[in-house]
Amino acid sequence: MAVSRDTGCREMENTHFSRIYHQVSKDVYKNGPVISVDEKDWLDDWKTVYYKTYPRFEKIKLKAEVLHADFFDLIVRRESRRDFTKEAVDLRTLSLLLKYSCGVTGIVKDVRSRRAYPSGGARYPIEIYPIVFRSSNDLEAGIYHYSVKEHMLDVVWKRSFSENDIDMLFTYPWVKNASMCILMTAVFWRTENKYREKSYEYILLEAGHISQNVYLVSEALGIKCTAMAGLRPDKIERLLDIDGFSESVIYSLVVGT
Question: How far is CA 235 from CA 95, 167, 175, 192, 248, in A?
Answer without folding.
Answer: 26, 11, 16, 25, 11
